[in-house]
Write a structure and sequence with these properties.
4-stranded antiparallel β-sheet; mainly beta; 19 strands; 5-stranded antiparallel β-sheet; 277 residues
Length: 277
């Protein structure tokens, strides 16, 4: 027997409509027991004795891993960035006695407003204070997400299956993933004239922007001393464009921008110039 609750601490149900009485007991385990055999399981059961000292027998049994756990990370926070939602926490997690078969990881969960279950965003192994952040890039923009973190104890004893035990959770942190971040600026723009024996045109090519939410490109043109004007009527879907509206004897200056699915537009690229003979 590990403990006993006096009758005064066991509430009585006043009527059948009253919820069932509940009681709790905390069994504080010595850290040495957990570290000596962290892959073990503690088995608990409850025996209820009436005023006559009689009992109906033991309750169902539950097993609890013996592995030691750590408190939840402190100062847990979520912040929207151009790369994704950055989850951060403070260093200073107390370390248990170093054992070769025990690792600790910070695990982060995410849940959307209408989601029925949490999503495991990722894990960071606790070794020192070199990394106290995790970047979530699997979320949906323009949605509210809740994040929480916990410290996971991973026990890897030779000859036994790996065991993972989660500690307490941090308070949930809500963040609205509003995308106000434009894609990367296109680079490598080149302009090449063609037209010998055919109608003149200038071909433009540039390095593709690799942002996952890229929707397309805008192309801008101006003559020397003039104002740049967008010359595409719809977003250009590939990193190439042909300008057929050119006139002999003029020099044109081009630049391109990238646009994402939510209409955020990048700055324009460096200009490329080409003359029409």
């Amino acid at each position: 027997m590990v403990g006993q609750l006096p009758p005064a601490r066991l509430p009585r149900a006043a009527a059948q409509t009253t919820p069932k009485a509940q009681a709790e007991y905390i069994d504080s385990l010595p850290r040495e027991i957990q570290q000596e055999n962290p892959s073990a399981q503690f088995t608990y059961a409850v025996l209820v004795v009436n005023e006559s000292g009689r009992s109906a027998g033991l309750s169902n049994q539950v097993q609890v891993p013996a592995a030691p756990t750590l408190p939840a990370p402190a100062s847990f926070n979520a912040r929207v960035t151009a790369q994704g939602i950055l989850l951060t926490w403070s260093c200073g997690l107390p370390q248990a006695k170093a054992l070769p078969y025990i690792q600790y990881r910070v695990r982060v969960y995410r849940r959307g407003e209408n989601a029925q279950a949490d999503t495991n965003v990722g894990e960071v192994e606790i070794q020192d204070c070199s990394k106290t952040e995790l970047l979530d890039q699997s979320f949906e923009w323009e949605q509210t997400h809740s994040y929480r973190a916990t410290v996971v104890t991973v026990v890897s004893v030779l000859g036994k299956p790996e065991m993972q035990v989660e500690g307490d959770d941090t308070p949930s942190v809500k963040v609205f993933a509003h995308d106000v971040f434009p894609p990367a600026v296109p680079t490598g723009l080149q302009a090449v004239f063609s037209g010998v024996g055919q109608a003149p045109f200038i071909d433009l090519v540039w390095a593709p922007v690799t942002d996952a939410d890229l929707a397309g490109y805008n192309v801008y043109r101006h003559e020397e001393g003039g104002q740049a004007v967008k010359i595409n009527s719809e977003l250009v879907k590939t990193p190439a464009f042909r300008d057929s509206n050119v006139v002999a004897g003029k020099k044109y200056f081009y630049s391109v921008s990238a646009v994402d699915l939510r209409g955020n537009e990048s700055a324009r690229s460096e200009e490329a110039a080409e003359s029409v003979p």
